[in-house]
Amino acid sequence: MSVKCSFCSNKAITKLRYAKLSLCSKHFVEYVEKRFSKIISKNKLFKNMDKVVVAVSGGKDSVTLLHLLHKVSKEFNFEIIGLTIDLGIRKYSVESVEKALKNYEMLNIKYKVIELKNKYGFSIDDIAKYRRKAGIKKPICSICGTIKRYIMNKYALEIGANAIATGHNLDDMVYYIFSSLYSGRVDNLAKISIYSPSEFKFVAKVKPLAYISEKETLLYAMLRKLPFNYNVCPYARLRTFHEYIRKTSNVLEENVPGLKITFARMFLEKINPILYSHYLSEKKFKECKICGMPTTGKICSFCKIKSAMEKVLKK
Predict the structure, then answer these.
(1) How much is the average pLDDT of 219-231?
(2) Backbone torsions φ then ψ of 192, nearest 5 degrees
(3) Pick the CATH number of 36-314 from 3.30.1130.10, 3.40.50.620, 3.30.420.40, 3.40.630.30
(4) What DSSP assignment string belongs to 22-44?
(5) I want to staple 204 with a disulfide (CB 3.0 to 4.6 A). Which of 6, 87, 198, 277 is the partner?
(6) What does the domain layout of the chain look like in residue ranges?
(7) From the centroid of its chain, how far is CA 204?
(8) Cα–Cα distance between 190 and 281 in angstroms, integer?
């Protein structure tokens, strides 16, 4: 026997146990959009902002974020500018950029594509091939994250944006919290936030999908028939520990519906503000001697990577 939607007589396509709702496709889309608007309103994520950079990789989360933000941008009175970084990862980057552009065009949104290879002389493929020769010890995913954060922040500063919105979802937040707790990285815990304020030359960071699960962003994108890259980055090798956290949190959610949201909200709204004020509020930043962007040392992490790659690629 098919289950009916909680709001109409149509067949339900999904059950949200944490909300005690069974929803058809139409009411699922409406539910996500209303929840998204409430998250923004409750957390005052875009208060007194008029220009927001939306980082769109072309994957399901960032594409969903773009469409949801486009829907509420008039309500909260801010302009959206899309930013896509072509990381130069073989066929994966070509497909990702293509999907991002299709979504910008669907919504008639202004956007910027920054090609890592053309602008800075190296790509993620180059790093994968030469990082050991260049003396870069960090994993590729960590290096890629550093590069993306640098470019997003630099671009947002250049155009005078008030904030950068990224597509980190509920499952991402739960994973970051668990893994940082396990490793005792208090500084990392202090950085995990739904909203990070502007300081020095850092533009504010906003994660509006922090309370919306990965399954929900995927289903929303599919029901709305949004173009996105289904493929996984070829360098994203899921570590065993990472997988344990994902599986364990899913099992807990199955047995205690709403656990993920409760856990994330408890941390983001009650614990993080205390950690932030204690560990990060007094952190001293200065300008990188090479590029002028913020850093805690003489040279920022991005410039160290760029310099190391330049030496190897010249040879």
Answers:
(1) 97
(2) -80, 105
(3) 3.40.50.620
(4) EE-HHHHHHHHHHHHHHHHHHHT
(5) 198
(6) 36-314
(7) 13
(8) 10
